[in-house]
Amino acid sequence: MEVELLVNGKKEKIKIQSNVTLLHLLREELMLTGTKEGCGIGQCGACTVLLDGRAVNACLVLAADVQGKEVWTIEGLAQHGELHPLQKAFIELNAIQCGFCTPGMVMVTVALLKENPHPTLDEVKEAIKGNFCRCTGYKKILEAIQQGADEIGRKV
Amino acid sequence: MKKRGWGVACTYFGMGNTAKPNPSSAFVEVCEDGSAIVLCGVADIGQGSDTALGQIAAETLGISPERVNVVSKDTMVAPEAGITSASRQTYVSGNAIRFAAEQAKKILLKEAAEYMEENLIDLESKDNRIFVKENPGKYLTIEEVCTRLRKRGILVTGTGTYTPPTPEALDPETGLGIPYGAYSYGTQIAEVEVDTETGEVAVLNLIAAHDVGQAINPMAVEGQIEGGVGQGVGYALMEEMIVENGIIQNPSFSSYLIPTSLDIPQITSIIVEEPEPTGPFGAKGTGEPPSCPTAAAIINGIYDAVGVHITSTPVTAEKVYKALKQKGKEGG
């Protein structure tokens, strides 16, 4: 079957098997490998992307169900060669070690900040509870999210 | 009701593979434009070895870190640097790289000494320049020195290799011997809160002090401490591998529980620098040590809070609850 959708602002028309996930579509068909497969069963959050503005686990979404919808992945964050404030903060504060959880962490935060531009620390912890990290102990990730949020707040 | 307590635990942890050689090698070249290449087969799995090892080369050569290019991922061309494990890469590969950089630097210093008509011993290499220690205004840039050498057909390269000192095989009968060349020491203090009705344990604060010899990159060291503490909390309270007849019964994140952002305490890292004589600029490793004393500190904190001593991990709410009930029965 064929599915047509917007990915990072660009119209894509892709032929897929009817039983593949959005994660498969992004990684294998569109070669957007920034989104990671950590478990494939919706438990780790490494595959978090925005679907019509909401954070979802791409491994739990059927590609067939995204017809006519809008998806944003980590690749869509940097604009005109400039990194997104969250990306800058993650790099600056050493919130990235192996990097596997990072795209999911950043995308779930983008979704959070859309709803709640000035979250408290507890609200941030709650928002990322579905994104596992084994390397960092979460501390620098939480700091980077707060720095990124402050930076976005300043720009607005 | 909720009761709080504090617990302390210490660790010492050997650097490198146990009681056997585990060498690393490296090549260093200083290029004509004054930048440097470090070739070393170290797998950076996110801990930041590319950065720290680049810094070690930069510091040794006197070149800015941004001008040092670490090539590590291609094992077809990079010399062997052993496993990224055993908290060994900063310590072992760091030394190999330092030795390689020292060899390259000797070529630069000799040339600079001849041209400036100074004694080798009076020269220093720093901030991309080779200058007279007592008269820094008299200098050559490293780029100038390399260009001069190249005109005469001399390239600036060095090779280094290192294995930790005196690892010997342990006595097969007694187990005695010298297993490691260096040790890292750490102490952690945990503040815990125990719910006496449910047995649930929350770790509120975790202060982790770790002796790393010399922190080459303090932010990366903090990352290792914080990550290790996270793993230690999981080991203490949540993680249990259930195996029956050789088959893992809980091979998924919903059944083998690891800490989420909601499970982590407030972590305070304290970097202790007691130089390791055998380490590069006094540095040694800190990959594993931060995950070692955490469980013990938490368990001691539970004892401080409610007077029960749990002796197996994970310390589940059920174990604490049962122990509290038992303590109650014994009138304790």
Care to describe what's here?
The complex is a heterodimer of chains A (156) and B (332). Chain A has 156 residues and is of the alpha+beta class. Chain A folds into two domains: 2-74, Beta-grasp domain (Ubiquitin-like (UB roll), Roll), CATH 3.10.20; 85-155, DNA polymerase, domain 1. Chain A is 35% helix and 15% strand. Chain A has five helices and five strands; from the N terminus they run E-E-H-E-E-E-H-H-H-H. Chain A has a five-stranded mixed β-sheet with strand order 2-1-5-3-4, with helices on both faces. In chain A, a hairpin with a 2-residue loop joins strand 3 (48-51) and strand 4. The longest helix of chain A has 17 residues, at 139-155. Chain B has two domains: 2-14 and 182-329, Aldehyde oxidase/xanthine dehydrogenase, molybdopterin binding domain (Aldehyde Oxidoreductase, domain 4, 2-Layer Sandwich), CATH 3.30.365; 24-160, 2-Layer Sandwich (Aldehyde Oxidoreductase, domain 4), CATH 3.30.365. Chain B has six helices and 13 strands. In chain B, strand 5 (123-126) and strand 6 form a beta hairpin. The A-B interface holds A 39, 41, 43-44, 93-94, 96-99, 124-126, 128-142 and B 45-48, 219-220, 222-223, 226-231, 252-254, 258-262, 264, 267.
Number of strands of chain B: 13
- Using the 3D structure, state the CATH architecture of the largest domain in chain B: 2-Layer Sandwich
**Shape of chain A, please?**
globular
Oligomer state of the chains in this structure = heterodimer
Here the CATH topology of the largest domain in chain B equals Aldehyde Oxidoreductase, domain 4
CATH topology assignment of the largest domain in chain A:
Ubiquitin-like (UB roll)
Name the average pLDDT of chain A: 97
CATH level 1 class label of the largest domain in chain B: Alpha Beta
Total domain count of chain B: 2
In this structure, how is the largest beta sheet of chain A organized?
5 strands, mixed
Distance between the termini of chain A: 42 Å
**Count of distinct strands of chain A:** 5
Strand fraction of chain A equals: 5-15%
Spatial extent as radius of gyration of chain A: 15 Å
Helix-strand category of chain A: alpha+beta
How many helices of chain B? 6
Percent helix range of chain B: 25-40%
